[in-house]
Specification:
Urease, subunit C, domain 1; five-stranded parallel sheet; four-stranded mixed sheet; 17 strands; binds zinc ion
């Protein structure tokens, strides 16, 4: 049945329009947008905005959030140097125990949380492929199936990005035992991609892409091979890679390839808007210029990058040059769209000693500008027709909660400015994915069961 949604106020492009009916086709895509109310429409009185794509997720890491916010001291009372790398060691210990049904329970819980927060699609950068010890499951795609089932159950759009992870470091360094569950050779990886493409390509809320883990974890030949393979299957398939999160990683890349990681990638591959460079944190000026020109998307994960002490992405300069960016919740220390956007802006304020930094002359409201841009660029990064309320786009919609006192008396762009900066989290009332209501008055049908299942997993893992 075709759905009609009538909105009293809706964000279309950068303009708030009133008295609008969206007509959807049977798959939940917007067929027409017309002024006025069409009979039979579902009436939405609160402001409607596009749902936010989450460009970067490692679902299993949600179970680890909150367990590593402490510092070790040695026998002399000296603090240990705590960093990304020590966090990673603890994360590996958790991963060692995780079974397929555990991953399903964590991902279901997480995807319900995401929908409640206003994320309507997610790119899952999936590297937990094998059994503990590294042996493959009877079905080598077992863990991918669990992620896909979780997304379908929760009702979130999924871009699935199986990760190719072959080495522990530059120069084809052999992986450690702790990395056994992540590791593929190229042939085995391409068979996984082929199997997933065959099984799921007809699902309208699903997109398959690839994720070479990082320049340190795959060789240049592997990268060439998997990029040309996926491009032969789908010219719009997203390609995501961790690129320059850590200074050590940049230095290692310079030693091995003689250039910085983003520079190397730009010189060796034809980047476009379906490439997403996750944590392009440490950029030289020329890398920043060339990356913005390439139209590849910088995948920024502000709360995770702050939590891990990674560094600050040069957002002001990058956006001023026309660069594209998306936001991701990555390690899931926070599932909070407003937090990601607020932190992006506040980091720039703290550096520049100014207010309202990330804006344009056409859209001076920071909250609305950043939200709309992250949604639109994020859709390109995950290669789904979402991120805007427009004809041909999927009806992934968030309805703001006007009962929230912080939205009182707001109009137009003030809705998103207040939602981002003054509401702690996005005040979400209802959420639609492909025109289907998945969050109703702040609640998801599965949430109580998902919470219980998640807690059981934590009992077994931690
Ligand atoms: Zn990541």
């Amino acid at each position: 049945m075709n759905t009609k949604l009538y909105a009293e106020n809706v964000l279309i492009g950068s303009q708030w329009k009133s008295d609008i009916t969206l007509s959807l086709d049977a798959s939940g895509y917007i067929e027409s947008i017309v002024k006025g109310k069409i009979s039979g429409s579902t009436i939405i009185k609160e402001p409607v905005i596009p749902g936010m794509p989450n460009c970067h997720s490692h679902a299993f890491q949600r179970a680890f959030a909150g367990y590593s916010e402490y510092r070790n001291f040695d026998a002399h009372g000296q603090p240990a140097k705590d960093s990304f790398w020590s966090w990673r060691d603890i994360m590996y210990r958790l991963v060692a125990k995780m079974a397929p049904q555990d991953l399903n329970a964590i991902a279901t819980f997480l995807y319900v949380e995401m929908l409640k927060a206003g994320y309507t699609s997610v790119a899952e950068f999936h590297y937990l492929h094998h059994q503990a010890g590294g042996g493959t499951y009877n079905d080598p795609a077992e863990m991918s199936h669990q992620i896909i089932l979780a997304a379908q159950g929760a009702g979130i759009g999924l871009t699935h990005l199986p990760v190719l992870y072959s080495y522990a470091g530059f120069g084809e360094l052999a992986p450690s035992a702790a990395q056994g569950r992540f590791i593929h050779g190229t042939e085995q990886y391409l068979r996984l991609i082929e199997a997933l493409h065959k099984e799921y390509h007809a699902d309208a809320n699903f997109k398959l892409g690839i994720a070479p883990h990082s320049l340190r974890a795959v060789s240049d030949n592997q990268l060439d091979e998997i990029v040309s393979n996926i491009r032969s299957i789908d010219s719009r398939a997203p390609i995501h890679i961790h690129i320059a999160e850590q200074i050590q990683e940049v230095e290692d890349c310079k030693s091995f390839y003689g250039s910085r990681p983003v520079e190397w990638l730009l010189n060796n591959h034809d980047l476009d808007q379906h490439w997403c460079l996750i944590h392009a944190t440490h950029l030289s000026k020329s890398e920043q210029n060339n990356l913005s020109m390439s139209q590849a998307v910088a995948g920024i994960c502000p709360t995770t990058e702050a939590n891990l002490g990674d560094g600050i992405f040069p957002t002001q300069a990058f956006l001023a040059e026309g660069g594209n960016f998306a936001i991701g919740s990555d390690s899931h220390i926070a599932i909070n769209v407003a937090d990601e956007i607020r932190l992006l802006e506040y980091a720039q304020r703290l550096i520049t000693h100014q207010r309202s930094v990330l804006t344009t002359i056409g859209m001076p409201s920071v909250g609305q500008y950043l939200y709309a841009k992250a949604a639109k660029d994020g859709a390109a990064a995950i290669s789904q027709d979402v991120g805007e309320i427009a004809v041909g786009k999927r009806a992934d919609l968030v309805v703001l909660d006007l009962e929230n006192p912080s939205l009182y008396n707001k109009v137009g762009s003030q809705y998103l400015d207040a939602a981002i900066f003054a509401c702690n989290q996005l005040p979400v009332k209802d959420v639609y994915v492909a025109g289907k209501k998945v969050i109703d008055n702040g609640r998801h049908l599965l949430e109580l069961q998902a919470n219980e299942n998640y807690k059981k997993v934590l009992d077994g893992l931690v």
